[in-house]
Design a protein that fits this description.
The protein has two helices and two strands, in the order αββα. It has 88 residues and is mainly α. It has one domain. This is PH domain-containing protein.
Amino acid sequence: MCNALSVGLGCSASTSNVARLEEMERLLREAQAEKNRLLEYKSPNPSLTFSVKTHDRVYYMVAPSPEAMRIWMDVIVTGAEGYTQFMV
């Protein structure tokens, strides 16, 4: 059954969009929890600290500047998305 989000879209598109939004919300909650954990580790610069989770471990990284952190994160996310598309 189509919902309000499906106006102008096919039902499968809206279901896909809802699933993506739910996944993004889950990832955001997970990222916030991870940020709280970072603060427990007493990073030298918590505002520039982020983590990269793999199947085996979590890597904590501290960028030298906000701009560097945005670049690093963009490269990591872009690479992960590319890998995911490659595997399909």
